[in-house]
Amino acid sequence: MKILDDRVVRQAKRFGLDVLVYAPHFTPLSEIRERAAAYTDDDLLVVPARELFTGSWRNRRHVLALGLDGPIPDFTTLDGAMAELRVQGAVVLVPHPEFLTVSLDEAAIRRYRDLVDAVEVYNPKHWARHNRRAREIARDLDRPTFGSSYAHRHATVGEVWTEFEARIDTEADLLAAFREAAPRRVRHRDGLVHEARRRAEFAHLGYENSLKKFDRVALPGMEATHPGQPVYENRFDDVAVY
C-alpha cells in the first residue's frame, strides 16, 4: 500500500481485509511507523514496511522489507541493501519481479534466494504476461508467493490480497507467516471493473516515472531516505550510489 488515509481504511474494511502493509515511497521508517500506528484499530492492522529503491535512477531495483529494526536508505547498491536486511533479520519480499526497469530479475532473486521470503505473483500494474512470468520465477526458484493491490490509487485498494490460513492478529503474526512459509492463497477480483482499475493503476506509472521522477532527478534537494541524511549516521556511505 502506497497511500494511507481514512478512505483507504474504509475501503479495506468494506472488502473485509484484516491487514494492510504500508510502504510509501521515499518516506522515513519513523514516519511510516507513526502513520501505520495511527490508522491501526481493533478491526484493521496496518503494518509498516519499506519498499527500498536500490541502485541508481537508471538501474533501480525494488525490494520490500518488513520487520525492520532500524532505517535503511534508498539509493544503495542491491548488495548493500541485502546485507543490511540480512543483519536485521527482516522479512524480504520481491515485488513485481522483472517488471519494466524497476525490479529484481530471476538471476538476482536466485542470488539472494535464501533471503527472499516470497515473490509477488499478482500485481494490478502487471499485464497477464507479467503475472505468468512472476509465477514461473517463484515456481522455478521454489519460493513462496504473495499478491498485493500495490495501491497508488484509492480505487485499487482491495483488488488483490493474500489470504493466509493462519490467523493474523499482530505484526509478529504476519512476519512469522512469511518466515515460516505459512500456507496461503493469492486472491484477486475479476470482471470489467477490476480490469479498468488495473489499467488505471498501470497508467499511473506515467505520472510516477515522468513528472515525479523529473522532480527528484532534475530539481535540487535530497530525498528524506537518501544515504546522506543524518538519520543514517554515515553507515551506508560505502554502498551509496549517490
From TrEMBL:
It comes from the Archaea. It holds the Pfam family PHP_C. SUPFAM superfamilies: PHP domain-like (SSF89550). InterPro entries: PHP_domain (IPR052018), Pol/histidinol_Pase-like (IPR016195). GO terms for molecular function: 5'-3' DNA exonuclease activity; 5'-3' RNA exonuclease activity. This is PHP domain-containing protein. It comes from Halococcus hamelinensis 100A6.
